[in-house]
Amino acid sequence: MPPFRLLTLLLSLSVVYLWGSTWACEMENSTAEEGTGSFLNANIKWPVQRVVSIEGDLVLGGMFNIHERSDVYTCGKVLEQSGVQAMEAMLYTVDMVNNDPTILPNITIGVHILDSCDRDTVGLEQAVDFIRGSMNIVGGSRYKCEDGSVPTVDYKKIVGVVGCSSSVTSIQVANLLKLFTLPQISYWSTSPELSIKKRFPYFSRTVPSDEFQARAIMDIVTTFNWTYISVVYEDSNYGQQGLSQLKAEAERRGICIYLALKFPRDSQMASSECFNDIMKDLGSKDTVRVVIVYGTDQDAAELMRAAKRANTAGRYVWIGSDGWSSRQSPAQGQEDELEGAITIQPMAQTIDGFDEYFASLNPATHRRDPWLTELWEEHFQCKWPGSRLTPFNYHFDSINKTCDTNVSINARTGYKQDGQLQFIVNAVLAFAHALDDVHRTYCKNVSGLCEEMKRLSGRELLDFIRNVSFTGITGQKFKFSAVGDGPPRYKILNYQQTTDGVYDYVPVGSYSEGLDVNVSMIRFRLDNESYPDSFCSKECGIGEMKSLQNEASCCWICIPCQKYHILVDEFTCEECEQGKIPDDLKKQCLNVSLHYLQHSSPWAIAPMAFSIFGIVSTTVILSIFIHNAETPVVKASGRELSYVLFAGIYCCFFMTFVLISKPSKFVCGMQQVGVGFCFSMCYTALLTKTNRIARIFNRAKRSAKRPSYISPKSQLLITLGLVGVQILISAILLFTAPPIAKPDFPSREQGQLVCSAVLDGSFMIGLAYPIALFILCTFYAFKTRKIPEAFNEAKFIGFTMYTICIIWLAFVPIYYTTASNIEVRTATICFTISMSAAVTLACIFLPKVHIIVLHPEKNVKLRRMTCARRQSFYSLQGTSETTATELALARRRSKMNMCPNCGAPIPLAVAKSLVDKAMKSKEKEERNAAAGGRNRRAVKFKMPIDGENAVGSSTSRRNPLGSTVRKRGAFRSRRFTPPESTTVENKETVEEACPPTIEIDITRTPEKLKEEAQIPPIEDSEIQPSGETDTEAGKPELPKSSPPHDSPVTSVHEEQEVSVCMELSTAGPSGSGSSTTTEEVIANHHPPVELDVDSETEDDTQTNCVATNTTTKDKDYRVALQEEIKFAPEEESGFPLEEKSDINCTPELSHIIQEATC
User: Distance (Å, rounded) from C-alpha 435 to C-alpha 429?
Assistant: First the structure.
């Protein structure tokens, strides 16, 4: 005998011996109990071993829980659904297969069914019967026949076993059957451990593993948002594996298990006290309302009885596993406690025809079921006539309650088909179809059992079983999985009470690849359909995270997330990145809305309206200038630079519309370039004007030479060059820092779309150059503030610069303090730019428009200008007896003259140079007189040099010296008198208005005068008198002369202004005709000689010396009659005569002065 077979034999003998000893011991205990009064009849023995044995060509073993487990006896009372009904389902299916000619033709299947009493030890003992067929010689090995041969026992070979129901019993039996390669198919064992084929290679089942059941249960828990649950499980492989699967699924879903309570299961029955303790532990936390129960229907029934004793009806939601799902035993007498329970049952259909078959059974006629009598007695609570006494029917005999043999167990008598009988049917059919496939493979067309099938091993049959596929009697297709499990399909049941008081399991959903449940059909109780919550701590509110009290607990406290944080998960808050804020639920970060100035906003409408007004005003003023382009005021204003300034003002006003546009790459580029460009155009034009005036006056202090680059063309080129520098800077910025629109977040909740130049500072780089121009322009405006009052252009430019400076000083703090408000900030810069342009427009051009529009009579080519200095050396009023000391004092007090036409300071040297030239002419006359005695002339020059009494003076303050100086020894001087046509009513008034003047004696020799005056010689080319008349024909009206503010003479008549040329002609050596002397010229033209510049002359290098004749009528006669001024000799005055004034009167100066005067 091979060693393996020998080992198997020894093990089998040991098992049989142990089984026999245990059975005998239990029978002895039962007898002893009877002797103490447990039974009325002391001769009753319990339990009685029974077996269902039906002959067949191929025999299938079967093991069922015909009796329940008991803590007093080896086997308890008979079980109807999971016991007798399950066993009868196997018989019913075998009958159906034997009657089907298409399956195993001419081959019948027999059965050998045993009772495990829901105990793993009893099940293992009973399983020995299944392997005896493989050990036929063992039975008589100790005996010999008469011929000496070993006797054999004819046991039918078992080809496979259907069973067991509980996982713990199936594990024990599977360990035994695998030694004999006997295939086993279970119908209710769901432990995941049985799927391990290395341990249980011959085990298969028609139900799914508890791994899928745990998923279905936890899906239900998640559906109702139960987060804190308890588990009650049997202390067996089934319960332990179920708990392990539940914990894994619960941890994955964030569901916590508060208590996991177990009760005994394997070889003993849990006592009532055990379940009472379980109920007490469950009540230790009020908020835990959901309890999952892993166990059999007997365990569930005991738990419901304990719940009833604890009076907890309606407190708990029971979730049942497939071990007791849809069974009636847990609810018998405890319907109120079980109401609302949700159970999980492997998906099965009722067996058609089985109800009729079971109703036809009767102990009197159905002899193959040895437990049918016990079922009858338990179901009808009576004693079947002639049955043996048991611990469960003896009291019926004492009260003479005998069963009615004519009734049957059906729906009217409380029968209900067990919902899991389909799995028993599928197990039998799996064997039948596998054997049929074997027959077709080995026996070919041979009918009946062939020799190959008789020698069929369990390993070969297992391969056919794992590959079997058939359609069951319920119409569902069945096929084993790769590990021999049934398909994972479950039915969800809800134990409900109907309105008529009937309790039943109601299908409410299913589970296959996922949970599919109709929540509206699930009802907790009849009077309260909604299910209670089950939790340890209440769910946190919006934006609150959970902080666990300890790592092993699912109880927590809620902590609000900080501002601008979101809830990443239940236990973590995370801050949103810059530019994002949490949503209302604080579950995700949302982008902050980017704001920019809308055209419909009042902050945009106001600056746009102001800009439009500025554009219209600029257009009107520009139109006036263009229409009057040839008038003296427009010409004198410098048309070229004025047009550049107009363009800059236009640009500033239009920048408002660029600044309030939605930021984009193009708009940002326009802003970055445009603002600096506009200011550069304005400030370069103003800077060129102020610089030109400052250079001319500064040059005049040093020499009479004309400054460079002061012509209109030069000034325009300089302006464009300065603007070009700004364009170059802007181009460099555009390439080095390309403008883009980007978000800016002054605060976490506020976002605004701005240009990058505002953020990175490149905007200020673009404004640095215009700011430098503005500073220089302001500097030159301040520097030229003390030039004569007639220079209104410089004064207005200075006022413009000061006002703009104030505007920008107010703008800077507003701009930087409103960085968070893009609307206010943009409106502020728009107003600042527009106001800068408006101030420039108002201060520079409005005075000129005032003259052009309201005072056109002043818009003439020649205009006298007020002298800035009130006292001059050459302007001394008083008597002719003024002393030399007084003259010297006057000369010291006033070092400069004023140009009679422009009011500009004229150096003393220039005035003396005119005298020098006259003396040269005098010498020439004397020489001619000596030669011919004819043509002797006396030349006298009149220099109107008193600021107060010069023509056009704004005041008439008398000189304190009040006299004229006469050089003794000179010829008699002549006084000029007003023209005869002038009528003067009051002589005293005339005397006051026309005070006597100082006379200049020019009859002295040139050498003497040079010596006394110490005047450097001036070339003839430096002073070029002109003999042309500079009057303009066709001018109907001439400007009126305004009298001095303190003069008693009031102008009541118009003045008529005629310009004549002072002639300084002399006769040559061979001159012919009469020669006009200077005295005669002066005598013919009574008014004093004044210097004037033609404003239309493009050549600024020539000064025309003209005389002005002013005819004054009535009281408007205020022209000072002036005669030749005779210089006092140096020796009398005591002061040198070469003292020079501050500024040289040059042709360029006169031109600029006339341009700048309005």
Answer: 10
CA distances 859 to 1137, 1154, 1157, Å, are 40, 12, 11
Place of tokens 């093990």: 11
Q: How many domains does the chain have?
A: 5
- Residue 901 inside a domain? The answer is yes
Mean pLDDT of the region 603-621: 92
Residue (of 494, 535, 492) closest to 229 by Cα position: 535
Same domain, 673 and 777: yes
CB-CB contact of 902 with 1149 (8 Å): yes
- Residue 636 scores a pLDDT above 90: no
User: Is 20 inside a domain boundary?
Assistant: no
In this structure, are 468 and 335 located in the same domain?
no
| CA distances in angstroms from 537 to 1, 438, 571, 690, listed in the order given | 68, 61, 14, 83
Alpha-carbon gap, residue 964 to 869, rounded angstroms: 20
- Is residue 1017 situated within a structural domain? yes
Distances (CA, A) of 726 to 647, 670, 730, 760, 775: 15, 14, 6, 19, 15
Report the number of secondary-structure helices (H) and strands (E) in the chain. Answer: 33, 30
Q: Are 176 and 75 in contact (CB under 8 A)?
A: no
760 vs 848: which has the higher pLDDT: 848
846: CATH = 1.20.1070.10
Question: Which domain CATH number covers 270?
Answer: 3.40.50.2300
What number of CA atoms fall less than 13 Å from residue 612's CA on the CB side?
A: 6
pLDDT value at position 700?
A: 62
**Which residues are CB-contacts of 342 (< 8 A; sequence separation ≥ 6)?**
220, 317, 318, 319, 320, 492, 493, 494, 495, 508, 522
My answer on whether 76 and 199 are in the same domain is yes
Of 273, 288, 1147, 371, nearest to 704 by C-alpha is: 1147
Task: Say if residue 514 is in the same domain as residue 559.
Answer: no
Tokens (6 digits) for 130: 């299944």
Containing H/E element for 543? none
Do 263 and 312 fall within a single domain? yes
The structure's pTM equals 0.50
Closest CA to 778 of 815, 806, 812: 806
Burial of 164 by CB count in 10 Å (0-12 exposed, 13-18 middle, 19+ buried)? buried
201 with 217, same domain: the answer is: no
Residues 260 and 119 in one domain: no
Give the confidence band of 941 by pLDDT, cuts at 50, 70, 90: very low
CA gap 560, 499 in Å, rounded: 47
Range of the domain at 499: 210-349+489-521
Residue at a domain's end among 841, 858, 875: 858
Residues in the chain: 1158
Give the CATH number, domain containing residue 561. Answer: 2.10.50.30
Query: Tens digits of per-residue pLDDT, 56-80?
Result: 999 999 999 999 887 777 788 899 9
Instruction: List pLDDT tens digits, range 92-132.
Output: 999 999 999 999 999 999 999 999 988 888 899 889 888 87
Q: What is the pLDDT of residue 470?
A: 93
- Same-domain check for residues 143 and 219: no
Average pLDDT value over all residues in the chain: 73
- The dihedral region occupied by 881, where left means phi > 0, alpha psi between -120 and 50, and beta the remainder, is alpha
How far apart are the C-alpha atoms of 177 and 187, rounded to whole Å? 16
Identify whether 1008 is part of a domain: yes
Least confident of 590-604, 739-753, 956-970: 956-970
